[in-house]
Design brief:
Bifunctional nuclease domain, 7 strands, alpha+beta
Length: 165
């Protein structure tokens, strides 16, 4: 698997006029997947460990997995067609009947949210990673502009709440 996939991390989540831009990448490259605003918010809440009064859909799925001792081993963003990305979730469960591993088709945004909640690794197929446009400079420019916009003393760490990485 190591040669067929690239491990990535979340580099940023930025609101856009139509939803959110989810930046994923490694030290050599970052790319963007456009997602719904609500899922972008869910990812940010999961990254920041925000406690909610009531569980959101991803929290419910996480609780079900944990309750049935189902572990999200990894997610793989395995395909991209005409700007739409596809992902697979690899889940495992072990009980008195043995070990079971299943692979589910899922949206990358849902997969990433659950991966954050379960602290599971995120992979991208090498073919997809090589095909996507490198957005590293765009991300760095956005981060730089956002840090320049912070009033002195208001954000002493230099961290941008939309990019807590």
């Amino acid at each position: 698997m190591k040669n067929d996939v690239v491990q990535v991390s979340i580099k940023g989540v930025l609101p856009t006029s139509n939803g959110c831009a989810l930046f994923l990448g490694d030290e050599s490259k970052a790319f963007v997947i456009y997602i719904e605003q609500g899922i972008g918010n869910s990812i940010m809440m999961a990254l920041n460990g925000v406690e909610k009064e009531r569980p959101l859909t991803h929290d419910l799925l996480d609780t079900l997995c944990r309750g049935f001792q189902i572990e999200l081993q990894r997610i793989i963003i395995n395909d991209a067609k005409e700007g739409t990305f596809f992902a697979r979730m690899i889940l495992s469960m072990e009980n008195e009947l043995g070990k079971k591993i299943i692979e589910l088709d899922a949206r990358p945004s849902d997969s990433v949210t659950l991966a954050v909640l379960q602290e599971a690794p995120i992979f991208v197929s090498r073919a997809v990673f090589e095909e996507v446009e490198d957005m590293t400079e765009v991300l760095e420019k956005i981060l730089s502009e956002n840090n320049d916009d912070d009033p002195p003393g208001e954000n002493p760490s230099g961290d941008n709440p939309q990019f807590p990485f």
